[in-house]
């Protein structure tokens, strides 16, 4: 009978073989996880080629990324688009409707929802509103990110450090917990968390809360798949690349990290293909 020790030994032996054959890479060496690195959009994901008529989408987040994703769903023909954030959403609503018009799609029903990612009450109220307005959702996108001050763990501010965990993990958990019951009743059952490459590396300095909370978010998605995969749930964590946002602006205040967010050159791609 296999023992825990023998299983670990077999796993370690197999991993060493795979690494020698370059089938897997050592994350401590911070290799890229895919052979093809995209630096721009490409035809396969062109929203104009999709047909999401009848689909109901909720995008949560105040950043430009979430606004751009809502606009892409409009270009893809989604019929119902809700945008949840704790900020002025009137301009975003107008941009989403314009995106659908320019793509020659049927105008979607766009709903702006006052949603505070840190407030269970706010999130539960948003879920009730969307259930009443759309009858449920097919796709849930959660773009929730916060970064602590650029300081080592020893020098960090307790409240700022823990706020990263509150926003990056507790927030997505609260949103998922509120909307998952209605999603499991039918539809596409797709959840997309906008995560970060910080889940896979420690090469960025003085951002231990951001890196660990994003890694926990990735693991949370894996648990959702394990718990509800047989019911058709498809949870994803995606990294969109080095995009200029309020979070990335905080990251590059650290001199070491600034060098990590320069556009990659052929010399730094280590043989990877670019597209």
Task: Describe the protein.
The chain is of the alpha/beta class. The protein is 42% helix and 13% strand. It contains 8 helices and 8 strands. It has helices spanning 4-20, 64-75, 90-102, 120-134, 158-183, 208-228, 246-251, 255-260; strands spanning 36-37, 56-60, 80-85, 109-114, 139-142, 190-194, 234-238, 273-274. Helix 2 (64-75) packs parallel to helix 3, helix 4 packs parallel to helix 5 (158-183) and helix 5 (158-183) packs parallel to helix 6.
Set down the secondary structure blueprint.
Elements: H1 4-20, E1 36-37, E2 56-60, H2 64-75, E3 80-85, H3 90-102, E4 109-114, H4 120-134, E5 139-142, H5 158-183, E6 190-194, H6 208-228, E7 234-238, H7 246-251, H8 255-260, E8 273-274
Parallel strand pairs: 1-8, 2-3, 2-5, 3-4, 5-6, 6-7
Helix pairs in contact: 2-3, 4-5, 5-6
Quick synopsis:
This protein has 275 residues and is of the alpha/beta class.
Strand order in the largest sheet: 4-3-2-5-6-7
Q: Count of helical segments?
A: 8
Secondary-structure element pattern, one letter each: HEEHEHEHEHEHEHHE
Distance between the termini: 49 Å
* Count of β-strands: 8
What can be said about the biggest beta sheet?
6 strands, parallel
Cα radius of gyration in angstroms: 20 Å
Strand content: 5-15%
* Fraction of helical residues: 40-55%
SSE class: alpha/beta
List unreliable stretches of 5+ residues: 1-5, 17-32, 260-274
Query: How would you sum up the global shape?
Result: globular
Determine the mean pLDDT: 80
Task: Label this structure with key terms.
6-stranded parallel β-sheet; 275 residues; alpha/beta; two-stranded parallel sheet
């Amino acid at each position: 009978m296999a023992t825990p020790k023998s299983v670990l030994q077999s796993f370690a032996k197999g991993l060493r073989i795979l690494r020698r054959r370059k089938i897997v890479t050592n994350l401590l060496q911070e290799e890229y996880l895919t052979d093809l690195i995209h630096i721009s959009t490409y035809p396969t994901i062109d929203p104009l080629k999709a047909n999401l008529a009848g689909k109901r989408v909720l995008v949560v987040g105040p950043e430009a990324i979430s606004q751009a994703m809502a606009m892409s769903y409009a270009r893809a023909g989604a019929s119902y688009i809700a945008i949840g954030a704790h900020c002025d959403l009137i301009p975003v609503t107008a941009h989403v409707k314009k995106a659908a018009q320019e793509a020659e799609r049927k105008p979607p029903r766009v709903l702006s929802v006052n949603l505070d990612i840190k407030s269970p009450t706010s999130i539960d109220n948003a879920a009730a509103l969307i259930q009443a307005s759309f009858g449920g959702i097919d796709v849930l996108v959660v773009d929730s990110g916060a970064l602590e001050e650029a300081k080592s763990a020893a020098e960090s501010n307790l409240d700022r450090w823990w706020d990263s965990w509150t926003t990056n993990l507790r927030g997505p958990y609260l949103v998922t917990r509120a909307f998952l019951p209605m999603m499991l009743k039918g539809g596409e059952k797709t959840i997309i968390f906008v995560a970060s490459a910080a889940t896979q590396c420690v090469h960025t300095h003085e951002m231990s809360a951001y890196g660990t909370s994003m890694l926990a978010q990735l693991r949370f998605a894996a648990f959702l798949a394990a718990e509800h995969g047989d019911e058709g749930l498809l949870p994803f964590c995606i990294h969109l690349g080095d995009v200029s946002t309020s979070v990335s602006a905080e990251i590059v205040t650290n001199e070491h990290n600034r060098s990590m967010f320069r556009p990659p050159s052929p010399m730094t791609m280590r043989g990877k293909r670019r597209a």
